[in-house]
Amino acid sequence: MFLVVGGNSEIGSATAQLIRSRGGEVVCTTRRLPTAPNEVLLDLGGPVQDFAIPEGVKSACIFVAVARLAACEADPAGSARINVEQSAALTEMLAARGVYTLFLSTNQVFNGDTPHVPWDAPVSPISEYGRQKAAAERTLRALMREGAPVGILRLAKVVSPGMSLVENWKRELAAGRPIRAFHDMTMAPTPVKVVAEAIARMMEDRLPAIAQLTGPSDVTYADVGRSIAESLGVDPGLVQPVSALDNGMPHGSTPRYTTLDSSLLLARYGLTAPAALDVIREL
Ligand SMILES: NC(=O)c1ccc[n+]([C@@H]2O[C@H](COP(=O)([O-])OP(=O)(O)OC[C@H]3O[C@@H](n4cnc5c(N)ncnc54)[C@H](OP(=O)(O)O)[C@@H]3O)[C@@H](O)[C@H]2O)c1
Description:
The chain is α/β, with parallel strands linked by helices. It has helices at 10-21, 69-74, 76-96, 128-145, 164-174, 192-205, 221-232, 263-269, 276-282; strands spanning 2-5, 26-30, 39-41, 59-62, 100-106, 150-155, 158-159, 179-182, 186-187, 190-191, 210-213, 219-220, 239-242.
């Protein structure tokens, strides 16, 4: 049985759905009132020691996080409690009971100066979110060195069908209205279905590795806007390039590169993300 810690999250809900579609048994945690028989309450704001691990759970993945750069910057202590201390405490508790636990980390543990960063490069975060994920990784890597059943999967931008930014841009451009798109913010998007597959496989195999999964190359948000304009057959000049930094985006939100060396999951499971603009077109 699989434990999805944070079943309401974007990636967690897709992963639970994927495992169930193959006949796997999943229990999801929620901090809201549980409404389904396979849901249990877990608020990471409270003591994790009170959490009763459901009987039969063999593998878990922690999706719960304060996962936005701006939210971490606005409340470093409160977000670190969830992203670092409570995530690490829950991982320790699960691993001590023999439950394989996968922790989701981010390209933000690196400064973004180089592309395709290897998994074992020294961390170099510049955002508060990246510093917190790097701190959680440090605790988990110590557990892994002791032989605990723990894995880490680093992701960059994950995109889901119906992504609101893309939907809004499509609507505006189709109506002939201009959009503003960052020319200094990049992404190497991975479709959520590929990410969910990777997580499910790592949980099935209880893979005690640091894996990474991003798209093969970066494009700017302005590139994405122009690509949407072209596919709609409207004037790409409707895309007005603007600077993310000049428009108040948080520190660390404009790394030059977001790609990570994703060869482990390609070799092991044949999993890879298509080229960035193909991913956006698929949406
Ligand atoms: N999405 C990406 O592009 C991306 C990229 C790199 C890494 N990641 C990592 O992947 C993981 C999942 O990301 P995601 O985008 O799927 O997350 P998400 O959609 O932002 O969801 C985060 C979840 O955390 C829950 N949560 C927050 N505080 C909590 C608390 N105190 N107790 C219990 N639950 C709490 C939220 O619950 P409510 O629903 O009740 O608010 C929400 O369901 C995160 O670790 C994130 O850092 C994501």
